[in-house]
């Protein structure tokens, strides 16, 4: 780019229905040298065009050059069936069945967390982001479980981040003992909702209920 300090570059995506969306928008410069530019445009399921739109700088002459343009990672992967104890993601990759409905997104599109997860008993999965999922702290004089996020207020008593998002906004349950009343052997107890017994065939790999009650 040259004399493009006040110019702008837009990268747009136009779909087959003529709807255009902005993929990127950035200011120009006057570096007058080749630079690498990368932009992830994500997975687009219908035919599309990429449009590069330049708005010239206020000085004359402005110029922008483009070369070695590549769309990368766009080739559909060769379909290879998964092993029997693996789950097929839509992207054709395979993940271990144990990773289906385990809260974490393991498939690129996260479908392992949608696939038959509603078969799991209500409240059997809980990230504690939307409450306690009917887990209840037992009333005790010297201890209590509380819903918490970020570092615990007492030094050396708990994690600094939750285990779902790994950041200070994520919530988790924290067992807190009364600092003056605690004695060795005292308990902080949290009770779940009552779950119906799982189907007897939940351990069969081919069943939709496979591993559904693994905690
Ligand atoms: Ca998962
Ligand atoms: Ca959490």
TrEMBL record:
Keywords: Disulfide bond
Keyword Protein transport: no
PROSITE patterns: LDLRA_1 (PS01209), LDLRA_2 (PS50068), MAM_2 (PS50060)
Cystine connections: 82-94, 89-107
Organism: Limulus polyphemus (Atlantic horseshoe crab)
Domain of life: Eukaryota
Keyword Transit peptide: no
Identification of the protein by name: MAM and LDL-receptor class A domain-containing protein 1-like
MAM domain segment(s): 1-76, 124-173
């Amino acid at each position: 780019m040259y004399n493009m300090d006040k110019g702008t570059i837009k990268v747009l995506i136009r779909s087959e229905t003529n709807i255009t969306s902005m993929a990127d928008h950035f200011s120009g410069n006057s570096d007058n040298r080749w630079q690498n530019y990368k932009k992830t445009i994500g997975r687009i399921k219908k035919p599309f065009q990429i449009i590069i739109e330049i708005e010239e700088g206020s000085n004359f002459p402005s110029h922008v050059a483009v070369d070695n343009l590549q769309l990368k990672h766009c080739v559909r992967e060769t379909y290879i069936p998964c092993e029997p104890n693996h789950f097929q993601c839509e992207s054709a990759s395979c993940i271990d069945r144990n990773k289906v409905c385990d809260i974490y997104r393991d498939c690129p599109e996260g479908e392992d967390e949608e696939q038959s997860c509603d078969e799991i008993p209500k409240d059997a999965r809980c990230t504690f982001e939307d409450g306690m999922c009917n887990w209840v702290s037992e009333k005790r004089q010297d201890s209590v479980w509380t819903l918490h996020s970020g570092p615990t207020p007492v030094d050396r008593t708990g994690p600094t981040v939750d285990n779902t998002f790994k950041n200070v906004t994520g919530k988790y349950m924290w067992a807190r003992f009364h600092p003056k009343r605690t004695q060795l052997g005292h308990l902080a107890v949290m009770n779940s909702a009552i779950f119906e017994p799982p189907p007897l065939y939940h351990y069969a790999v081919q069943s939709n209920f496979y591993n559904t009650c693994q905690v």
